[in-house]
Each structure stands twice: as C-alpha cells, then as structure tokens.
C-alpha cells in the first residue's frame, strides 16, 4: 500500500473521517466480523473505531497512511473490547500436526474452474471464517490484517507493534491452520510419498509462504515441487483466495448511518475509557 501525499489529508476531521468511512468502512467491518464473537460486537467495534478517529484526528502525523493509522486505532479498540471466549484456544498445533507429511491421502483442489461453483465457494468461505474466529488472538489479528485487508508484513508490524519476523511467524502458522481446515473439505486422493527429504519440503514451504507474503507466484513451482507439495500449495492458494474475498463488500447501510450520526453529534464519548488518551 502506498503512502499518500500528506497535503491530501491536511484537512479538518469533519471532512477526513467521513472520507475514511467511505473509503475503508467496508474493510473495517470485515476486520470486526472476523475479530468479534457476534455481529453486534462487530458493529459496536466499528462505531468505536470511528469515534476514536474523530476524537484523535489531530494526532495523525502523516508518518503512515490514514488507512494504517485507522487500523492502529482498530487494534487498540479490539484489545479493549476483546473478551476471551469459552473454548478459545491458546496455541496452534505443531508444524507436524498441520502438514500431511505422514498421511497417504491429501486434499486435492479441483483444477476445473467449473467445479468451483458458488456453493463450493460459499462452503469454503464459511469454513475459513469459522476457522479464523477460532484462531488464538495473537494469530488471528496478523492473519486478518495481512491476508484479508491486504497490508504488507511491514505495515502489519507497525500496526501491531511487532517485529516483522514475528508477524511472518504468526501469519504463516495461521495460514497452515486455514489450509488444514479446507483440506478436510476437499476431495481426497492417495499421492506418492514426498520426492524430497522432509527438510527440503519444509524449505519449499517457506519459499511458498514468502511468495504469499509478497503477493507473487512461486517461480518455477511446476519444475521443482513434487506432486504432494503441489497439492499442499494449491490448498494454500485456495485459502488465500477465500481470505481475499472476505475483504469485499460494503458496510451495512444501517451501521453507516449510525456512525455518521455519532460523528454529527461531535464524536460522542466512547462507551468506556479511551485507551489512547
């Protein structure tokens, strides 16, 4: 994401915040739906984000994009509103548990686009959405910011105040969990054993993750990966595509109207003490 001309946003909050609502309201609603436990909590979170943006607009110093600044506010609001849900895990499985190295059967993504009908896509989207909700909190937010909203690794680190290496570790593990969920819903096929040693397969997996981080295709993949790794990578691509689709769509009109009403009221005080003050 590029950093806009600072002069473009050297404007009063009365103009800036409604513009941010128009430009990024849908993405913030997508974030809130994946972070919160209920639709009502998601709507409350969106309102709190824009109220805080209104109240703190003068603190925007143009060192980041307005969108990144807005999602940093979202991070603080999420931390304040988050309540650990019953049954929410505190860890992800180990790498060995999340990859099919020892299983003779692997989920195969259909190669014919006609097979990927609307019902199939809807089912995959529902499965991924449920899996994201069940991710431990430390993994869920980086994954949503990176693979749904579309921030770079560096930007995610700045928003969450994490080192880039930590962001990568958490996003990579979360991706493998989503891939695992999708794989169980795909047609299963018995494939030959890996053509390489386990370490080579792990190195190729790291290369695949790095390409996903950068938003590029893995070069020469058809020539260097075995049939089993190709199937794993295809399911990772499917999970990525499902995540991307979750960023589309507009904020509900009723929620937008509620946000605008609170802004017209001058950014009425948030429901609880503001952690940014």
Comma- or semicolon-separated keywords:
single chain; 277 residues; mainly alpha; Rna Polymerase Sigma Factor, Chain: A; Arc Repressor Mutant, subunit A; 2 domains; two-stranded antiparallel ribbon; 12 helices; 61% helix; 2% strand
Can you describe what's shown?
- With 277 residues, the protein is mostly helical.
- It has two domains: 6-83 and 249-264, Rna Polymerase Sigma Factor, Chain: A, CATH 1.10.1740; 95-245, Arc Repressor Mutant, subunit A, CATH 1.10.10.
- The protein is built from twelve helices and two strands.
- The chain has helices spanning 13-35, 39-55, 66-81, 95-98, 118-133, 137-149, 153-160, 164-183, 198-214, 221-224, 227-245, 253-264; strands spanning 105-107, 188-190.
- The protein has a two-stranded antiparallel sheet.
- Helix 2 packs across helix 3 and helix 5 (118-133) crosses helix 11.
- 36% of the residues are buried.
Main CATH class of the largest domain: Mainly Alpha
Instruction: Provide the helix percentage.
Output: 55-70%
Molecular shape: elongated
Which architecture of the largest domain per CATH? Orthogonal Bundle
**How many structural domains can be distinguished in the coordinates?**
2
SS-based structural class? mainly alpha
Can you lay out the helices and strands and say which pair or pack?
Elements: H1 13-35, H2 39-55, H3 66-81, H4 95-98, E1 105-107, H5 118-133, H6 137-149, H7 153-160, H8 164-183, E2 188-190, H9 198-214, H10 221-224, H11 227-245, H12 253-264
Antiparallel strand pairs: 1-2
């Amino acid at each position: 994401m590029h950093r806009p001309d600072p002069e473009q946003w050297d404007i009063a909050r009365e103009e800036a915040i409604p513009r941010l609502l128009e430009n990024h309201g849908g993405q913030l609603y997508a974030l809130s739906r994946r972070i919160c436990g209920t639709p009502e909590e998601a709507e409350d979170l969106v309102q709190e984000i824009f109220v805080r943006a209104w109240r703190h607009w003068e603190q925007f110093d143009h060192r980041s994009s307005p969108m990144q600044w807005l999602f940093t506010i979202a991070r603080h609001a999420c931390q304040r509103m988050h309540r650990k849900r019953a049954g929410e895990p505190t860890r992800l499985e180990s790498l060995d548990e999340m990859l099919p190295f020892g299983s003779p059967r692997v989920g195969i993504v259909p190669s014919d686009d006609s097979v990927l009908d609307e019902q199939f896509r809807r089912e995959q989207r529902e499965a991924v959405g449920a899996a994201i909700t069940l991710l431990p909190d430390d993994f869920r937010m980086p994954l949503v910011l990176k693979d749904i909203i579309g921030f770079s690794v560096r930007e995610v680190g700045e928003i969450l105040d994490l080192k880039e290496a930590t962001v990568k570790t958490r996003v990579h593990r979360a991706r493998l969990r989503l891939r695992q969920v999708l794989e169980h819903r795909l047609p299963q096929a018995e494939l030959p054993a890996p053509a390489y040693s386990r370490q080579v397969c792990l190195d190729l997996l790291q290369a695949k993750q790095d390409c996903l981080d950068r938003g590029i295709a893995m070069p020469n993949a058809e020539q260097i990966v075995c049939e089993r790794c190709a199937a794993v990578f295809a399911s990772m691509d499917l999970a990525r595509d499902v995540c991307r689709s979750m960023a589309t769509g507009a904020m509900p009109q009723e929620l937008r109207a509620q946000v605008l009403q609170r802004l017209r009221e001058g950014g009425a005080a948030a429901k609880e003490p503001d952690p940014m003050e």
